[in-house]
Every structure is written in structure tokens, then in C-alpha cells.
Design brief:
Elements: H1 2-10, H2 22-35, E1 42-47, H3 53-63, E2 71-75, H4 76-87, H5 94-99, E3 102-108, E4 115-117, E5 120-122, H6 124-135, E6 138-143, H7 147-154, H8 156-165, E7 166-171
Parallel strand pairs: 1-6, 1-7, 2-3, 3-6
Antiparallel strand pairs: 4-5
Length: about 180
């Protein structure tokens, strides 16, 4: 809980007591996934805008010592950009994202769904997900997309992979960003 509080305060926001709230339940669920018998290799943090998904992801990433060998943290847009760089024969981390022991992938669904190269359509994020699924590599994903939107954006195959590989933690609360500057109740 303290690490989550640190993440919130590091962003310049006021931490409010969360005992007994959905956020506290979600932190407990993530802790259980990390420390209990792990039935699924990955974690999907899914829900409404500003509800604490990225903060929880950043706290978890700190526990895994971001920057250590085999651990990468990136946004979906960064994955897309790195894939484009690879296509352009530029230095790229895309293959490293695929091979990483631990990948923290924030804001799935904020990137373009496809990129073109000489008339060929590529789908960088689904390709990354398929590879990580196949190798059962730990992937912690945050997204605002509902299941229906995941299917619309990436196709049924990606959602099907998520069902098998990801423990799901759902965030349904109101946006904390909308509450910034409002007095605590």
C-alpha cells in the first residue's frame, strides 16, 4: 500500500485513504497474484480512465526493479513506434519487448492498430501479445478498453489469449484526475 501511495505522490497528487475501497481490493488482488500460486502468467489491469491502473502498474514495476536485466516498461504507443523504427531499419527495442522476462505495457489501445510498410499491413501489438503468450512470459498490461473494444481494435484472437494468460483486475471507480483539487470527503 505504501508503494502505491509513493507512486501517487511522486506524480504530484494527494494520496487519499483507500482502506475498504475498490483500489485497496485491487492492490490486494495484485499482491495475491504476485505472491500466491500463480495460475496465469500475466496480469490485465482493465477499467475506467484515471482509476489507478497505471499507478498500480508503476508500483508493481518498482517491486520488480524496473531497469534490471530482462524487465521493460513501456506504453503501447512506444511499442508501435519501436516496431516502425525496426521496419525503417533504425535501432529498436521491439524485439527486446518480445523477449523480456517481464514486460509492463501501459495504455493498451492508445496506439494506431496497424502500420503500413510498402503496402503491407502490420499489427505490432497483437504480434507482441502472441509471442509473449506463446512463451508464457510475464506481461502486465493496463488498458481502458472493454472486452468489446479489445475485440474491435485487435480481434477476437487477442482477447482469447488474454483470457488464458491474464489474471484480470477490473477498475470501475471514478477518475482520480477529475477529483484533483476537490476537497477530500
Amino acid at each position: 500500500m505504501e508503494l502505491y501511495q509513493d507512486v501517487v505522490e511522486d506524480r504530484g497528487c494527494e494520496f487519499r485513504e483507500i482502506a475498504g475501497t475498490e483500489v485497496a481490493e485491487n492492490i490486494a488482488a495484485a499482491a495475491e497474484w504476485m505472491t500466491g500460486p500463480r495460475l496465469k502468467s500475466s496480469l490485465l489491469l482493465q477499467g475506467t480512465l484515471g482509476s489507478g491502473k497505471s499507478s498500480l502498474m508503476n508500483a508493481l514495476c518498482s517491486l520488480y526493479r524496473y531497469g534490471a536485466s530482462g524487465i521493460y516498461k513501456c506504453t503501447a504507443l512506444m511499442v508501435y513506434d519501436q516496431f516502425k523504427a525496426k521496419l525503417d531499419k533504425q535501432p529498436s527495442y521491439y524485439d527486446e519487448f518480445k523477449k523480456a522476462d517481464y514486460l509492463f505495457l501501459d495504455d493498451l489501445g492508445t496506439e494506431p492498430a496497424k502500420c503500413k510498410d510498402y503496402g503491407v499491413d502490420y499489427t505490432p501489438l497483437p504480434e507482441l501479445i502472441y509471442e509473449r503468450y506463446e512463451k508464457q512470459r510475464v506481461t502486465i498490461i493496463s488498458t481502458n478498453l472493454s472486452d468489446d473494444r479489445i475485440v474491435a481494435w485487435y480481434g477476437k484472437r487477442v482477447l482469447d489469449r488474454f483470457e488464458e494468460m491474464c489474471e484480470r483486475i477490473v477498475f470501475l471507480g471514478d477518475s482520480y484526475r477529475e477529483q484533483i483539487g476537490k476537497p477530500a470527503e
